[in-house]
Each structure stands twice: as structure tokens, then as C-alpha cells.
Specification:
Blueprint lengths: L1 H12 L13 H8 L3 H13 L3 E4 L5 E4 H7 L7 E2 L2 H6 L22 H12 L7 E4 L6 H14 L9 E5 L7 H9 L16 H4 L4 E5 L6 H5 L2 H6 L1 E2 L9 E2 L3 E6 L3 H4 L2 H4 L4 E4 L8 H19 L3 E3 L1 H9 L5 H19 L6 E3 L6 H4 L14 E3 L5 H8 L1 H19 L8 H17 L7 H22 L5 H14 L9 H17 L1 H18 L5 H11 L12 E7 L3 H13 L4 E6 L5 H13 L7 E5 L19 E4 L4 H11 L5 H11 L14 E7 L4 H14 L7 E4 L2 H7 L5 H4 E8 L10 E3 H6 L3 H7 L6 H14 L2 H8 L4 H19 L5 H19 L10 H26 L5 H12 L5 H6 L1
Parallel strand pairs: 1-3, 4-9, 4-10, 5-6, 6-9, 11-12, 14-15, 14-16, 16-17, 18-19, 18-20, 20-21
Antiparallel strand pairs: 1-2, 7-8, 11-13
Length: 923
């Protein structure tokens, strides 16, 4: 009894929610489950608490849950007795506070990330959410995923606490349609022979909860059609009673191992907008497969309650094997392997698992070679968690991530004050670099480390030459080892509170260590393209703290001097050259975006003055006359004399630097500098050698333009240097050739959903690209950018990537076939109402535009503005109403409402032409 109680609570604790604890953790409810007296259950619960196996929360009512299961799933606890759940929540680490139940899925942030996103989209949809069809081979985790979905709905309050979770395996009724109908929808007395009383079906049992239909491909076409009434209207009819519809509110999930096209009616698939395909075990990366092996070994260790020692070769074989039964088969192989080892070593204190305990057939499925990475042995005890095993497998990467977490935790504990954290930050970062440099294997991937070190050294030499600074000699090796050991790991927390904390920490680091931060940013920018770096804000923070140890030259007795200029590196370049020729670091630089305001520049300079001694004065050299006005934004109480000179050039900066060192008065300083740097000019007409680009655009926003850009980039051969850029349609339409883009690049042409009408730039519509009518036009554009062989590859890829189905699939997460079917109905209705025959080209444009529109409406991010709508409405009121009426077929299917602005954009696609004379006459 005691053991059964402990085992039951262990299973339940994996799904506990501290904010809404289920009654199943109370003595009263447990007594009902085990059908014994309450005082008997209380006796065992208190014994298990005294033994340290259960946590007791002495609230009203008193709760008990499994300590080990909680710590494995959530975070370590310091005690076994608490007065409230609030006390437990206070022990929760910063980085464990906002994980939802989908984090239970191994790969939730990698191979399953898109699947999780689609599920959340379906669950968040108003009403009962959207029906979901989960596909995947046997053993990929479909049933487990639906169980997680049920617990997630409970946790988020999407269903009531006691909401039912009903599973029905359709394979059991594949050859008996009558029995299937009865079990799904219920029946009334007399519905068939033997129906001697009314009976509820699965739909009624799942009302207000979740209904999971597994192996749904075993439903014959008649069985699939019987689900249409619920999918369309949300009602069912009991078998034998077609006069009394029953309204059912349930979230519906299907699972299948079969191909959708061969096993299902098209009309059935069209009614399920969210379709998710789970990857096979072979499609998951090695890290995920190894993590799955760890999780199964942990399960077995918890059952045996003996320490497990698993050899590295066993781990390697399990993670690299070919398992046709996917996760399910891998789990069984782990179970059999551990069982065999246990059978042979019952008397031993610890169970040693070696390759001799693996099933014989598993050795033939491995993909290992003699060159495979050697895996270390692991030891699993009751105290070991999955996270610890994963960390041991990648110690260097995990150490970097842990350092990120410790820095942020300390920053939070110090109320977001960087000054209070400096000493601890310094020790933490020094400890990390000591570990990376001296406690890791330097021989592994030796060639890669040499490459990294050489490129970082070259980057430092470039920085020293440009900025006239000198880095500590160890910095090259330290940063090289950091980048090497960090590897390709990513660290982007999903929690918005943590991301806000990161931004604030980066902001304060940038302010407090402005020079170091600037150099680190520049180093990473130079290294990124050659070293395939994915730089995060925490990389910049950590490396800035490390590089802060470098000594900077400090000038005393003369005014401080800064150069402020628009552009990416204008001020930096002038300051660097001037400092080098002057032999001293006289100038600091501020590179400003073109659209920055004088007030923002003033704030930057004031921030600079807070961390630098400007008591002797401040000289500001600016590049434009408008920047002379920035003094208006300085506080009136400022006590430092300020000199502002515009039209900064390198000679002007050099002259100013020379005069500053002479320590004359500010008046003499300005006069002598102005005389030494007179204006001299001539016009030079340089030869153009711009990077060639294609532009993609969409008149409803940048989203579709980015999708078109992505498909074009996929079509380019890998040897091509052609660049594809998405761009805002309205910016191109208004500024035309005056837009900065055309100064930076040689634009070969524009592809999009609307022509921005730039006379010098050719345009190709997306519908023409999809239809293939203008393929020669695109080929002609690319003739001077690609070789004939590259054009042939590009043309072939265009045909594959720009089919209508591929384009729509790339711009929406909804089911492509269903969306296209609904749009076809919409266009047919619009033709009937407007008495207009829509051309094929415009139909193609409507397919793409309306598919994006449907997703925008479902996500509640519709475009809510249209320039000139009132004028258009006065002229075309009847046509706009006809479009709205035609669109109602889509509104009913997706339960959405189209706004007036979106109707106007559809009008533009169908009725706008380059010749507007007819419209003007009508008006």
C-alpha cells in the first residue's frame, strides 16, 4: 500500500501546477482513489514525509507530493515541510520560473519548436480552439503529445479542472461502422438490435474537455463523413435520433501514421486547419536522441532504486542506432538492456550496463564508425537529473550558459544595478575563462581551434591598426577559446521578463564600459561572417566584462574631444586616423544613424560625460550644421564649457588635436583650428561597382515580401553572390530612386504583389512568376549577374519553389489545400456578384494575398488602415459590398470578420489597373 501510494504520487507530481494544485494531492482524494480510510492514508503520507520522500504543504487542505519527481521536473527544494506553496515558489530559480508543460517534450525548442507553435495557435483560437491532426510514424510520441496538451489546457485554464480527457482508438471499430457510430455519438434505446437503453458516446463523454481519436486513418470514408456535422456545426446526433442535435464543446485531436492523401477524404482534411508532423527518431539530431536515452535510463533507475553506471559505448550505440519503431522502440531497448544487466547483478550495489547487455539485434542497427566521437560513461543515482546528464555531455557549452544565468541572477538580485555587481561579475567571468583555457581538452578539434585563433588574431590586428589601441596579449587566446568552446550553441530565453533583464544589463554595460563594449561589438561584427557566429546580447556583455581589464590611455589637463557624425563608421574612421597621426588617443567617436534626432545625440554625449572627466571642457566636432543645435538639449545647470564645430573632416580633427595639446584658451583653440583647415574641394566622378540585388515587396506589408525573398534565396545556386532584399512597398512608392537603397546597390529588378512604379527599375509581379509567363524576363535580369550554368539551376529551382501550393505553404501555417479551396469559392462568388471574369494572373495574386489575409484575421493582426478609403468608398460602394458578401464564405469557415481596409486591398488587386481613366469617368 505504502509503495503503491508513493508510486502514484510520483506519476502525478510530474504534472503538478503550483498555482492551481489539484485535489489529487490531498489525503481525502487519495483515500478515495485507493478506497481506504482517510486516517490510513494520512498515516502513510506522514511516514513518507518523515522519510524525506514526500513534500508536505501544511495549508488548508494539507497537500503531499513526490519530492524526487518534483525536483527532476522543476527545481531542487531545500526542505520537506512548507507552510504554503508561496514558500516553495520563492525557492524557484530565475530560469525555471516560466517554463510551460511543453518543455517536458525533448526537442521542444529544436525539432519540435514549430509543432509546439502550431499547437499553441490551435489552443489559443477562440471557442474550442481549432481541430488538430497529428501525423508521424509509429512511436514518434503522438499520444504522449496529446496528454501534454491536456495538462497544458488545465494549467492555462483553457478547460475546467475536472474536464474529461477521452481517447478512442478507431482501429478497434474499423470494420464495424455501426459500433463505431455508437461509440462516437452514443445511441438511443431501440436504435439497433440489442440497444435496450440510451447510451452516451465519446463526444458526450468529452464535453467541455478533450477528445483524442487515435489511428483515425482506420475510419472508412463513411466513418470520416460522420464527423462532418460536428466539425462544421459543433453538434452531434445520437444514433437512432436525428431530430435532437446535441451541442458539444470539446477540443478535438486526431492522430495517424498514414499518408494524408491516400488515407483520407479531401473533404475531411479540408476541415482540419492545423496539421502537425512529428519527426522520426532518425530526423532528430544526435543531442536530442542522446537526451531521450538519458530520460529512459533515468526512468529505469527510479524503478530499480539502484545506482546505474552506463558505459559510453552503450550510450553511443543507443543514440546512433536505427530504430524503426522510433522513440517507442528505443525506450523498449533501454528497458530490456537495463533489465538484463539487473538480472545478472541483483546482488551488486550498483548496476553496470555494458554493450553485452544490449539486445543482439540492436548491434546491427548502429551507424557508428571508428571515427565516431567517444562518449563518456555516466553514473545515475536518485540525485541525478536529466539536466545534469545533458550538462555533462556538453560541459563547455553548458558552463557558458550557466555563467550567463549566474550573471543575470546576480543582476536581478541587485535590483538591476550594474555597479553593485561589478566584483562578482569579474570573478564569475574570470572563473569561466580559467575553466575554458585550463580545464578543457585542447586537443579535440585542434584544427578548428587553430583556425579560430588565427582569425581572431587577424581581427585584433585590424582593430589595433584602426583604433590605435593595444590589447592584452592573452585576449586573443581567451576570446578564441571562448568562441571555440561555446560552439554553435544558442541561448535565447523565451521568457519576456528575462529578455527585458538582458536588454537592461546590456544597456548598462554599454554605458558603463562604452569603449570596451564598442570594441567587443566591432570584433564580433568582423568575426561573424568568417566564423559563422550567432551573436547574442549576453556574448557582448560577457566579453565586454572580460575585455574591461585592458588599460585605456587617460588624458588629463586638456578638454575632452568627441567626433559626432552620421553613418556607420564615419566618426570612428576620422577619430582613428586623427588619433594615429597625433600619436595619442585624443578623440572619442559617436557614429549615428541618419534618422537620429539632435536630442538623441545630446543624450549620448551627456551619457559620455557621466563616465568621463570633462571638467576641463568638451570639444564636439559634428558633420552637419543641424547638429550645432544639440546644445539646446543640454541641462542649463551644466558647468562645463563646450565647443561645437561643424563640417568635421580629418584635417579639421588633426588641427584640433594639435591645438588641444598646446593647452591654449578655448577662443584661441577655435580660431587656430579654423585657420588651419580651410575648405578645399573638387568633383570626382567614381566608377560604379555596386553589389547587384533583387528587391521583393508587398503593398500590405513586409511579411509577404520576406517570404518571397526566402523562396528566391532557396532558388539561387550556392555559388551566386546575388543578394535578395525584402523592402517596404510604400517607401519605394514614395521615395523611388531617392531611397538610400538605390545608392547602395545596383537593383536588377523588383518582384512583388504591387508595382511601386519606379521608371528606371523593371518590375515582375508575383503572379507572373508563379504562372511562368515572364520567366524569360527574370532570366534577362540575371544575365549579367549569373553564369549560364547558374541561370539554368536558378530557373529549375524557380519552377519547383514557385508553384502556387509552395508559395501559399510558405506564407501561412494553415492547411494549404483547405485554404486554396475556400479562396476558390470566394473568387467564384465574387465573379457571380460583380459579373466580372477574373483573369488567371489576378486569381494567382488573390490566392497568395487572401491566404495571408486569412492567417492575419485568425491571429487578430489585420491591416486596419487604407489610405484614401473614404474616397474609394464613395466611388465604389456597391463593389466593396459585393466583395464583403463574397468573403462571407471564408468568414463562416474560420469564424473571422474582414475589416473595411482589407476589403479595399482586395479591390485593388481585382480592379486597379495602370489605366485609371475608366474609374475616373465612373466617379
Amino acid at each position: 500500500m505504502k509503495a503503491a501510494l508513493l508510486n502514484y504520487l510520483e506519476n502525478q507530481t510530474a504534472f503538478i501546477d503550483l498555482k492551481a494544485v489539484n485535489e489529487i494531492f490531498t489525503a481525502t482524494k487519495l483515500a478515495e482513489v485507493f478506497q481506504v480510510k482517510r486516517n490510513t492514508i494520512s498515516h502513510y503520507l506522514n511516514q513518507l514525509n518523515d522519510e524525506g520522500l514526500l513534500i508536505k504543504v501544511n495549508s488548508r487542505p494539507v497537500y503531499y507530493f513526490h519530492k524526487g519527481a518534483f525536483e527532476r521536473q522543476f527545481f531542487p527544494l531545500n526542505h520537506t515541510y512548507y507552510r504554503s506553496f508561496e514558500e516553495i515558489s520563492k525557492e524557484q530559480p530565475l530560469f525555471d520560473q516560466h517554463k510551460d508543460l511543453f518543455s517536458l517534450l525533448i526537442g521542444h525548442d529544436k525539432s519540435l519548436s514549430r509543432s509546439v507553435e502550431q499547437i499553441k495557435t490551435a489552443l489559443d483560437y477562440p471557442g474550442n480552439g481549432l481541430p488538430v491532426l497529428i501525423t508521424g510514424e509509429s512511436g514518434t510520441g503522438k499520444s504522449f503529445l496529446v496528454q501534454i496538451i491536456y495538462q497544458y489546457c488545465l494549467e492555462k485554464g483553457l478547460i475546467e479542472e475536472n474536464a474529461p480527457f477521452v481517447t478512442l482508438n478507431c482501429a478497434q471499430y474499423a470494420n464495424n461502422p455501426e459500433l463505431l457510430t455508437s461509440n462516437l455519438f452514443g445511441h438511443v434505446k431501440g436504435a439497433y438490435t440489442g440497444a435496450d437503453q440510451d447510451k452516451q458516446g465519446a463526444f458526450e463523454a468529452a464535453d467541455q474537455g478533450i477528445l483524442f481519436l487515435d489511428e483515425v486513418h482506420r475510419l472508412n470514408p463513411e466513418g470520416q463523413e460522420k464527423l462532418f456535422t460536428f466539425l462544421d456545426q459543433g453538434v452531434i446526433y445520437r444514433m437512432g435520433d436525428t431530430n435532437h442535435p446535441l451541442k458539444i464543446n470539446t477540443r478535438l485531436f486526431f492522430a495517424t501514421t498514414e499518408d494524408l492523401q491516400s488515407s483520407f477524404l479531401t473533404t475531411f482534411i479540408r476541415r482540419i486547419p492545423i496539421q502537425i508532423e512529428l519527426p522520426t527518431l532518425a530526423q532528430r539530431n544526435r543531442t536530442e536522441r542522446l537526451e531521450l536515452v538519458y530520460s529512459f535510463l533515468l526512468e529505469e533507475q527510479r524503478k530499480l532504486q539502484r545506482p546505474l553506471k552506463v558505459s559510453g559505448q552503450v550510450l553511443q550505440l543507443l543514440a546512433s542506432g536505427t530504430w524503426n519503431g522510433n522513440i517507442g522502440e528505443l525506450k523498449n531497448v533501454v528497458k530490456v538492456t537495463v533489465a538484463k544487466a539487473f538480472s545478472e547483478q541483483k546482488a551488486e550495489e550498483a548496476i553496470q550496463v555494458t554493450i553485452y547487455h544490449l539486445p543482439e539485434n540492436s548491434l546491427s542497427t548502429t551507424n557508428l564508425t571508428t571515427q565516431s566521437t567517444v562518449q563518456e560513461e555516466i553514473a545515475i543515482t536518485n540525485q541525478v537529473s536529466l539536466g545534469q546528464l545533458v550538462e555533462k555531455a556538453h560541459p563547455q557549452q553548458q558552463r557558458v550558459m550557466k555563467t550567463f544565468q549566474r550573471l543575470l541572477t546576480e543582476f536581478q538580485q541587485q535590483n538591476g544595478q550594474l555597479a553593485a555587481c561589478e566584483e562578482k561579475f569579474k570573478k564569475e567571468v574570470e572563473g569561466l575563462f580559467d575553466f575554458l583555457l585550463f580545464e578543457t581538452d585542447r586537443q579535440q578539434k585542434h584544427e578548428l581551434l587553430i583556425y579560430l585563433t588565427q582569425y581572431v588574431r587577424d581581427t585584433f590586428n585590424q582593430m589595433e591598426s584602426a583604433y590605435q589601441i593595444r590589447f592584452n596579449g592573452n585576449s586573443v587566446y581567451a576570446i578564441s577559446y571562448y568562441l571555440f568552446q561555446r560552439g554553435s550553441s544558442h541561448w535565447y530565453p523565451e521568457d519576456p521578463d528575462i529578455n527585458r533583464l538582458i536588454k537592461e544589463l546590456e544597456r548598462q554595460v554599454e554605458q558603463r564600459y562604452a569603449a570596451s563594449y564598442h570594441y567587443v561589438t566591432r570584433i564580433l561584427e568582423l568575426c561573424r561572417p568568417k566564423l559563422d557566429l550567432d551573436v547574442s546580447p549576453m556574448d557582448k556583455v560577457l566579453l565586454t566584462i572580460y575585455l574591461k581589464k585592458t588599460d585605456w590611455t587617460k588624458l588629463a589637463g586638456i578638454p575632452k574631444a568627441v567626433i559626432v557624425a552620421h553613418g556607420y563608421a564615419t566618426a570612428s574612421s576620422i577619430a582613428s586616423v586623427a588619433n594615429r597621426l597625433l600619436g595619442k588617443d585624443i578623440f572619442e567617436s559617436f557614429d549615428m544613424p541618419l534618422d537620429v534626432t539632435p536630442q538623441q545625440i545630446a543624450e549620448e554625449i551627456l551619457n559620455y560625460s557621466e563616465y568621463n572627466d570633462v571638467s576641463n571642457g568638451l570639444v564636439i566636432l559634428v558633420d552637419m550644421g543641424s547638429l550645432k543645435e544639440i546644445y539646446q538639449y543640454f541641462p542649463k545647470q551644466i558647468t562645463t564649457p563646450i565647443v561645437i564645430m561643424n563640417n568635421v573632416t580629418t584635417p579639421l580633427a588633426i588641427a584640433m588635436g594639435e591645438n588641444l595639446q598646446q593647452k591654449g584658451s578655448l577662443q584661441e583653440l577655435v580660431q587656430q583650428t579654423a585657420q588651419a583647415a580651410p575648405l578645399d574641394w573638387e568633383i570626382i566622378y567614381p566608377e560604379e561597382n555596386k553589389l547587384q540585388v533583387l528587391i521583393t515587396t508587398c503593398f500590405t506589408g513586409i511579411g509577404t515580401a520576406e517570404h518571397i525573398c526566402h523562396l528566391l534565396e532557396k532558388s539561387l545556386p550556392p555559388t551566386s553572390n546575388l543578394k535578395i532584399l525584402p523592402y517596404e512597398y510604400h517607401v519605394l512608392k514614395e521615395k523611388k530612386e531617392a531611397e538610400t537603397l538605390f545608392s547602395m546597390y545596383e537593383v536588377l529588378g523588383i518582384i512583388g504583389t504591387a508595382d511601386p512604379e519606379i521608371p528606371s527599375i523593371p518590375y515582375l509581379s508575383l503572379e507572373e512568376l508563379i504562372s511562368g509567363d515572364e520567366e524569360q524576363t527574370l532570366t534577362h535580369w540575371l544575365a549579367k549577374s549569373l553564369t549560364p550554368e547558374e541561370i539554368a539551376i536558378f530557373s529549375g529551382n524557380i519552377i519547383r519553389n514557385f508553384s502556387l501550393e509552395k508559395v501559399i505553404d510558405s506564407v501561412t501555417i494553415l492547411n494549404t489545400d483547405k485554404v486554396m479551396g475556400e479562396i476558390e469559392l470566394f473568387m467564384r462568388e465574387m465573379e457571380n456578384l460583380t459579373k466580372l471574369s477574373i483573369s488567371n494572373a489576378k486569381k494567382l495574386a488573390l490566392y497568395v494575398h487572401v491566404s495571408c489575409l486569412i492567417e492575419r484575421l485568425i491571429r487578430n493582426v489585420a491591416i486596419d488602415s487604407y489610405q484614401g478609403y473614404e474616397e474609394l468608398y464613395q466611388c465604389q460602394k456597391e463593389v466593396l459590398h459585393q466583395i464583403e458578401t463574397a468573403f462571407s464564405v471564408i468568414e463562416k469557415v474560420y469564424s473571422v470578420k474582414i475589416p473595411e481596409s482589407e476589403i479595399a486591398y482586395i479591390y485593388d488587386i481585382v480592379f486597379r489597373t495602370t489605366d485609371t481613366s475608366a474609374e475616373i469617368e465612373d466617379f
